[in-house]
């Protein structure tokens, strides 16, 4: 059942998620930054045209929980990571909170969302993360990354095409796939290395984390 949105409520839900998924990070340091971030996102969702946004609590239980599962599966260590189409910050901003050692670049086509991400990065005092206004596919940055991630990028095929262009060897690409709303298509250029199914908290449905790698 939904309680009123507060840091205590966020802490409770994060604790539940931590137990359910066996997440390898503590909930407590995540509570205040996530609370501030989700509260700001709720206030700006309409302006940013984030139509899927329902409430901070729903956002925590869907998008943030998926990002935390991804954070637990990423390779260990600090390395450059690109998030394609983070919109309001999923998964990249949440990855930075859970895995501060990562050096994250958020490539987002919508200028207003990029401005919001920049504001959040400054407000939360984060370093080693930046947002870049870029419509991938029309243009690609020169930078290359050992790890590329995304959620809600349109299709698995599109993700694989764009991730392929940005990956540096050995190269791993992780996609949070919502199989009931997004097509798989015919991904080409990367090899599928694994599919990790997981359940959203409180019976909110199933997701798959897809792992791709550069072909040998
Ligand atoms: C459905 S939203 C998903 C946002 C976020 N990843 C999430 O899961 O909540 C897709 C986002 O990807 C961005 N996007 C789509 N195609 C893109 C492209 N080719 N280059 C950069 N951003 C793109 C859109 O502007 C939008 O913000």
TrEMBL record:
Its main location: cytoplasm. S-adenosyl-L-methionine binds at residues 85, 151. Its EC number is 2.1.1.-. It is found in: Cytoplasm. Keywords: Cytoplasm, Methyltransferase, rRNA processing, S-adenosyl-L-methionine, Transferase. It is an enzyme of class 2 (transferase). One of its GO terms (cellular component) is cytosol. InterPro entries: rRNA_ssu_MeTfrase_G (IPR003682), SAM-dependent_MTases_sf (IPR029063). GO terms for molecular function: rRNA (guanine-N7-)-methyltransferase activity. PANTHER family: S-ADENOSYL-L-METHIONINE-DEPENDENT METHYLTRANSFERASES SUPERFAMILY PROTEIN. Belongs to the methyltransferase superfamily. RNA methyltransferase RsmG family. Specifically methylates the N7 position of a guanine in 16S rRNA. HAMAP family: 16SrRNA_methyltr_G. This is Ribosomal RNA small subunit methyltransferase G. It comes from Thermosulfurimonas marina. The gene is rsmG.
